[in-house]
Amino acid sequence: MATSLRKLRMLQKCITTSRVSIRRPCSSNPGSKLPSVEGETILHNPRPPGRCKIRQLHPREVSVLSNSQPVEGSRLRNEELRLMYDTDPNGFFLATADDGDVVGTVAALRLSDKLGFIGFHHVRDSFLEEGARLWDVAVGYLGDRNIGIEVAMQDVEKYMELGFKEEWRNGCFKGSGIPLLPEVQSNRLLRSVAEMGFGRVVDFDTDVCGEPRVKFLLKWLRTDNPRAAQAVLEDNRVVGYGVIRPLQRASSHRIGPLLAENTALAQVLLLSLLSSVPQQTLYLDSPLDNPSFTRLLETDLKMEQVQERARMYTRGNPHVNVRKVFGMLSKDIG
């Protein structure tokens, strides 16, 4: 693993010499000034003149994480960002200039003793060297774990040189005014997650994703709209579930996770979730390994694929059953 870590830290040179997705700037909000946080943990301090301060992110600062969302209109609300932050509060870091301006962020999540994930990596163009320092902090925090990332396709080769392997590809789909199929809305297989309880849904999620994420899901599944978190039951067992949540932009929502035993069940869930927010703009990140589901999105629902990304790991797929994943939770937390 020492060799792998050395390779990962070589990204410092890659970041400062070539354009990669983690540097993609936010055009609408290039920086945020935050007050100093009492009790903050400062890393790499003291620092050479001209370098930024890297420290842990405070809960009230989660809004700066939205700068890492590359697709315009798909930014998460603070409520969802806070739920993601709670996954591993010690693993969120930011870089600030001397005037308090936030110039970069990164999240390094310890999902288990063996698995980690790096996301929310965003650095302003005028502070590219801080991207390398943030990456180094993230890799060091995750230690001897299988590390996952999700990157734009043009950056795959760079990360392969650093020891990552591409496991599958996700398409980011967007649709507005999506047509609905009325026969799905009263499907007898569907149940509100709040109505049936969370335990069986969490068990199904663990079976598909390979790692338990109980604490996070118990919060993510609690939605204001009971139709926004639904499950499919067969023989009194969960065979699929999906969640839809609002985004920052008005009349915009994001679906994820969306997991099911097969494409037919995923379609039932998807259409029911869509019917809960009619005439909205919708986003869904879906593995491209499911061509029949992709056809449903593009042909029947008229959704457009606006981006393609690669999910990569340093030690291979951590037992995620991609054939049962029709909507990813997030590119930033795995």
From TrEMBL:
<dbReference type="Pfam" id="PF18014">
    <property type="entry name" value="Acetyltransf_18"/>
</dbReference>
<dbReference type="InterPro" id="IPR016181">
    <property type="entry name" value="Acyl_CoA_acyltransferase"/>
</dbReference>
<protein>
    <submittedName>
        <fullName>Uncharacterized protein LOC110991044</fullName>
    </submittedName>
</protein>
<dbReference type="InterPro" id="IPR041496">
    <property type="entry name" value="YitH/HolE_GNAT"/>
</dbReference>
<dbReference type="InterPro" id="IPR052729">
    <property type="entry name" value="Acyl/Acetyltrans_Enzymes"/>
</dbReference>
<feature type="domain" description="YitH/HolE acetyltransferase (GNAT)">
    <location>
        <begin position="201"/>
        <end position="319"/>
    </location>
</feature>
